[in-house]
Every structure is written in C-alpha cells, then in structure tokens.
Amino acid sequence: MTLTLHPRHDTTLAGRLSRSATERTAGAGPRTAEVADWLAERRAAHRFAVTRIPFADLEGWAFQPDTGNLAHHSSRFFTVEGLRAEIGGEPPTRWVQPIIRQPEVGILGILAKEFDGVLHFLMQAKMEPGNPNLLQLSPTVQATRSNYTNVHRGAAVKYLDYFTRPGPGRRVVADVLQSEHGSWFFHKSNRNMIVETDEEVPSEPDFTWLTLGQIGALLHVDDLVNMDARTVLSCAPVAFPETSARLSDSMLMSWFTGERSRHETRMSCVPLNYVTGWERDEWSIHRPDGRYFKVVSVGVEAGSREVSSWTQPLFEPAGQGVVAFITQRFGGVPHLLVNARVEGGFLDTVELSATVQCIPDNYRQPGAAGRPPFLDLVLDTAPERVRYEAVHSEEGGRFLNAESRYLIVEPATPIEGALPAGYCWLTPGQLASLTRHGHYVNVQARTLLSCLTTGAVTW
C-alpha cells in the first residue's frame, strides 16, 4: 500500500497572504471605496426590521416553570440560564448573573480563491438583529449547528459544502475552535475556518470577493466588518517579520500555563431562578443599578436570511466597551501588553485578552477601586499616539447594540518596572501563533489581531 506524504507546511501561503494584504484599493469585486455603497444596495434589496417586544410576545420561547430558564420549545438554539462564579483569593470573588448557554458548535467560514494570482475572500452582506446598522460584512458561512441542520426549517445555508465536505481542489488554510464572549456565553465555541478552492464558485447577489488588504482597509470603518469575520481573519497564518521577543516562545507558554494554573475558579450553570440581585419585568431582566447588561427580546424581519421572520432574546450591554492594546518597542521590536483574563464562561480558566477590556460606564470614577489597570492611560493617550481606532459591533446574533471602541495605543511615556499580576509583553507574531490553538486568545483580542493580519495596522 502506497501512502502519500504531504509537506508539513505550505511554504507559499504566507507570501500569498502578504501579497493579498498589499492589494488595498481594488480586486476582483468592488473597489474598496465602493463596498459601503454595495452594502447599502444589499440593504435596500431586502426588508429588515427589528422591534423590541415584551417577553410575552416571544414566539416559541418561554420561561421554564421549574428553573426559570428562558428556552426555545425545540430545545435547540440556546437558553438563558444562570451562572454561579467564584474566583479564589483572599477574599474570593463571587457573583451570579444570567448567561447564554449554547453547547453546539457553529461554523464561521471564509472561502478563499485566487484571481489573477491574488488571494480573495468571499464575504457576505449579512443581517444580524443586534447590529446597530443591521447589515455588515460577514464570513461566507456564519451558522450555528441548529441553522445548518435546518431546525428552523428555512432555506439551506449557501456555500456550506466547502466547509463540511473536503475534496479535490479544496485546501484548509485555517481550522480551529475559538471561544466567544466569555462574560456572556458559557463554554461557547465556534469552528473558525478559511478554505481555499480552485473550483468555479457560483455567484450570489449578497456575496462579493475582496482581498485581504481591502478588508484591512474596511476595518478602519465603524460597524462595517462584523465580529465573526474579524475572528476568522485573526486565524489567517500570516508571517510577521520577527526574530526576537521579550520572552522566548517556550518562556511565553510557561508564563501562560502558570496563569492558568494559579487561578482557582468554580463556574457552573444554575437555574435562572437562583440568580439574585437581578430583577425581571415584562421587558427585561436587569440589575437595579443598571450596570453590566440586561436581557431583552426582539421581533425580527430579515428578507435575506434563511428564515424571514422570528423572535428571540438578546443581551444588551450597559454602554459602549473599550478594548485596547498598549504597544511598546523593545530593541526596536513592537510588543503588545496582554492580560491573562478570567471570564465566567471560559472553557479553560483564562484566555489572553487585550490590555484593557471593559465597559467604562461600569467604573465611573477615574482611580476608583476596581477600575481596570491601564484604562485611564488608554483613555488619556494623545490622538497622535493612537495607532488604530474604530468602533466595532460585537456578536449581532446574540447581543443588541453591543459596540466597543477598539484601539491600539503607544503612550509617549514607556511603561517601566514590574507589571501587575496577569500581564505580559509579547509580539504580534507570538499572539498570532497562539490563535492556531483553541481557547488561547479571546474574541476581543482576536478583533485587534485581525487588524494586524489584514494589514490594517503596520509598524
């Protein structure tokens, strides 16, 4: 029996991705400056509407009499349950909250193909009910298992076969399980995939081909590239020109393993009825002080989706978030300050996050107790020291009007001396290499990393 051996690495891929990232103004699809108009055209081609409704008007959803959990009658999609969390320490930190439980693994997939020797990526104009502007640029396929197994009895998911049926002329560029928002999802993972094909790909009106550089340019526009596209693009195996770092790769992994080991956490789902300190009325589940988020419900009309109308719960945050990397050069090499962060819904204790990740309205007084480290430094950075800034929507399929201001800043005064516990300097290339592993880099940090893999930010 003859076995076929394959090279362990595609030695041409990094170069082809790099070339695609340099093509920033035009490609096989619309010019970059025309993409916003194309999205507006697709928005006008369908009817989209999202209306807040009371819980009593949810169709197919109900609060379960024994647990209080908000669930769909099919027992699929997701449930809103309670989370009981404890982080060890002196004293330990404890809290309870509502959380989304969705154990099924979805597919977030981007199809790639060369046109005139340049890699392009098939992007979709997709409506999500929680997005402030509804329609944004999304992956080729963005579907939960319930969606693509047709629990909703709607239309089939377009282009799904490229990601579920490998075959001749199809090559996997990236394929990794990644977490979603650990503060609002319990143990949620999605399969992040990039698949390249040599086949002729049928065209659809709500899809278009763009280069990596075009997408990078569009990442400078507020609320245009959705969260699912950003997380997939962060996994692209782009090469970074680095030969040295503050920590060697083995030192970095030892530090990260130590961070995972030093935290004693107990996170478990409990009935929503057990969540104290939260109130429920006919319109929302919320805290009396208005902090963090609330659970609401909406009615949706979406002419371009597999199902044209439905109702569902959504989580609505208390304000706009701030997610920021502080960057600093050591020996001329750019580094990012990361935080090994505990979140209640993470599958494995901690993941690497940006330097700052919070909703500042939850910490209203500068210098107040509990205010996140480096938040004031980020907010006070002079505009000329901001290397990247844009407002991006979070997961529009589960969160309503959830936006964060994403930044990469290089303060004029370097950070010197010992860092707070849980913080570490690593290079962009080291962070990118960790996305080859599931549950190492959280979804907010992956958004900022996508700005590097697409060439939206360069040094």
UniProtKB/TrEMBL annotation:
Signal peptide: none annotated. Residues 32-235, 251-452 form the dTDP-4-dehydro-6-deoxy-alpha-D-glucopyranose 2,3-dehydratase domain. Residues 1-29 are annotated as: Disordered. This is NDP-hexose 2,3-dehydratase family protein. It comes from the Bacteria. InterPro entries: EvaA-like (IPR005212), EvaA-like_sf (IPR038153). It comes from Streptomyces marokkonensis. It holds the Pfam family Hexose_dehydrat.
